[in-house]
């Protein structure tokens, strides 16, 4: 009877979470219970907003977000404009990205489509040397962390590329994946576009799934490494949140 009573108490305690522990002079959640709550709010561990809570003492610790929700905690609301798609967070692009787009627009004397949303923790590469601005080529790319089940650069990490330039660069292989055969026509934002599955080892965007379109002689592409349905959803969301930056 004692054993049965003890097991019931343990299950109840687990359902309600456990208390944080003191480690290296600050409170943290122990291994196996890494989902932290603060007040009545639960923060998914992969959330970029959870990182901002580091150093604060958690209220309770759980094995999963769902367990915390069952215990009465609610998931933290996303800031206005941010998105979460299957555990991958898209947040407002750093201010430096807009400044980079403006410099490119002025350099090329054309409107640049600049991202409003980027994957969280992505450090965008904004190369401005001769190789990047060569012949009107505009590129933003970078790697980002993702949940362990995300398929990108292996598992748990991704690679994003946003680019544009004169169509001649595409034909010459300096942008995108011009020799890919797997192409599917689509309509995107009222214009003709295409999905391209770029084979591994074949081009600049090797192994990427690409949404590409052309307007007034300029080709634009948004791509992620990995041919998955999730990456297509992420690409569409990022592409839908590109905004024009004029050279003026």
Oligomer: single chain
CATH topology of the largest domain: Protein Transport Mog1p, Chain A
N- and C-termini, Cα separation:
80 Å
Helix percentage range: 10-25%
Instruction: Please state the CA-atom Rg, rounded to the nearest Å.
Output: 22 Å
Word description of this protein:
24% of the residues lie in helices and 35% in strands. It has helices at 2-15, 48-51, 65-70, 95-108, 130-133, 167-171, 229-240, and strands at residues 21-23, 26-28, 35-38, 41-43, 61-62, 74-75, 83-85, 88-92, 112-115, 117-119, 138-145, 151-152, 154-155, 157-166, 183-188, 191-197, 208-215, 218-225, 242-245. The protein has a six-stranded antiparallel beta sheet with strand order 11-14-18-17-16-15. Strands 5-3-4-6 form a four-stranded mixed beta sheet.
Primary descriptors:
2 domains, 248 residues, elongated, 6-stranded antiparallel β-sheet, 4-stranded mixed β-sheet, 24% helix, 7 helices, disordered N terminus, alpha+beta, Protein Transport Mog1p, Chain A
Outline of this structure?
The chain is α+β, with helices and mostly antiparallel strands and 248 residues long. The protein is built from 7 helices and 19 strands. The protein has 2 domains: 64 residues, no CATH class; 161 residues, Protein Transport Mog1p, Chain A, CATH 3.40.1000.
